[in-house]
Amino acid sequence: MRALTWAIRLAVFVVLVAFAAKNVDPVKLRFYFDLEVQAPLVLILLGAFALGALFGVAALIGTVLRQRREISILKRPAEPAPPPL
After folding, report:
1. Pairing mode of beta strands 26-30, 36-40
2. Residue 85 in this model has a pLDDT that exceeds 80
3. How far apart are the C-alpha atoms of 24 and 16, rounded to whole Å?
4. DSSP per residue, the chain
5. pLDDT value at position 65?
6. CA atoms within 13 Å, Cβ hemisphere of 17
7. How far apart are CA 44 and CA 51, in angstroms?
8. Are 29 and 41 in contact (CB under 8 A)?
9. How far is CA 22 from CA 11, 13, 17, 18, in A?
10. Cα separation, 44 vs 41, whole angstroms
């Protein structure tokens, strides 16, 4: 099973490297206020992917921290019951 996983990873890597090698033509990315960046297409796509992943992680931080806090509260030992009167 481990060999199959590595074979799939290798195949995906080879496909991505081939995609990057075929998309090295320079493109212009235009912003507002006449600001533009010229870079290879593959770098623009990689940057867009990284920015999307960063926004996704940032969107999950609040949920993850809340869940960790709830888990730590649930893991605390229960307080002993008060003695009967």
Report:
1. antiparallel
2. no
3. 13
4. -HHHHHHHHHHHHHHHHHHHHH---EEEEE-STT-EEEEEHHHHHHHHHHHHHHHHHHHHHHHHHHHHHHHHHHHSPPPPPPPP-
5. 94
6. 6
7. 10
8. no
9. 17, 14, 9, 6
10. 5
> Does residue 79 have a pLDDT over 80?
no
pLDDT band at 1 (very low <50, low <70, confident <90, very high): confident
Q: Could you read off the pLDDT of 57-71 as tens digits, one per residue?
A: 999 999 999 999 999
Who contacts 28 (Cβ-Cβ below 8 Å, separation ≥6)? 36, 37, 38
Q: What percent of the chain has pLDDT over 70?
A: 100
